[in-house]
Specification:
The chain is an alpha/beta fold. It is about 40% helix and about 30% strand. It contains 4 helices and 8 strands, in the order ββαββαβαβαββ. The chain has helices spanning about 15-25, 45-65, 80-95, 115-125; strands spanning about 1-5, 10, 30-35, 40-45, 70-75, 100-105, 130-140, 145-150. The strands form 2 sheets. The chain has a 4-stranded mixed sheet. The protein is rod-shaped.
Amino acid sequence: MRLVGENIETGVYKTSVALQMAEQQELDLVEISPNAEPPVCKIMDYKKFLYEQKKREKMLKAKSTQITVKEIRFGPQTDEHDYEFKKKNAEKFLKEGSKLKAFVFFKGRSIIYKEQGQILLLRLAQDLEEYGKVESMPVLEGKRMIMFIAPKKKK
């Protein structure tokens, strides 16, 4: 097998010799590339390697952020008070850093008020302009008109 590692002369050794060298240094003989010809092994402290790998993964996980999507539902003829209440909640969600999915749900024949639903969503986008930016404009999907708003990055 080909042997690599620190404090070792890189070369091709017999398995028994490589194991003996690892034992002398009180380290482990780890197979790195079993498919190579001859197989490549390394003398190293395997427990320490695993510990450092877990630490690295934990750091990467801590740096990544989870994006949550909050939903706000309107009717095509939502009253002013209800609109203000839902706008306040949407503002709170965007400040927290969540994405916002605002949609107008059309029940039965209320689908004839598509324009009102679009106006409502565009008004919401305009009111929340300082907290987030519109990712997708209002789109009608079945009985729902959907719009996404992403939070603005904090400086």
